[in-house]
Structures are given as C-alpha cells and as structure tokens.
Amino acid sequence: MRRILLVGSRKLRTVAVVALGVGALVIPAPAALADPTAAPPRADAYVEVWCRAPDGTVAAYERVDAHSVDQGNKDVQVEHFGLHHDGWLCQIGPFA
Fold this sequence. Notes:
alpha+beta, 3 strands, 20% strand, elongated
C-alpha cells in the first residue's frame, strides 16, 4: 500500500515540475512578442556613426553614447573600423 502512494507522489511531483516549467515559458511570452514602444531609440545624449558603403550608399550605422566619444575614444574605434573594412568610410556625424 505504501509503495502505491510513493509512485503516485512521484507522478504528482513530475506533473508539478513540468507544469511550472511550461508556465515559466508561457507566461512571459506575450511580453516578448509585443510591439516595441514608440519611444525614441535613445533618451540620453547620443551621436550617430555614419558610413559610406563601397557601392556609394550612405546610412546611419549606429547610435552611440556621446560620452563614449569624449571619454572612450569611440572616434578612434570608428576610424579603425574603416581601416579593417575595405571600401567603407565611417565617421561621427553625417557626411557633408
């Protein structure tokens, strides 16, 4: 009799663990699939890195924190990106 109860509790424990695991995956899913907010892409001060591709198209490549340019030598990193990618010309701010 005791053995029958032990098997039943194992099944109950297994079902409970599986239910918790499924719940942990299903409950946050709507938030992950929701549309992004209409807020601007960055709320802090930022600058844009613009690049000219080898085919001549010009586009904003990335937005970076303004402090990373002043304190983190981001401008040097942008120059190095251009050196390692033939035909690409990148700079801080749009092309004139």
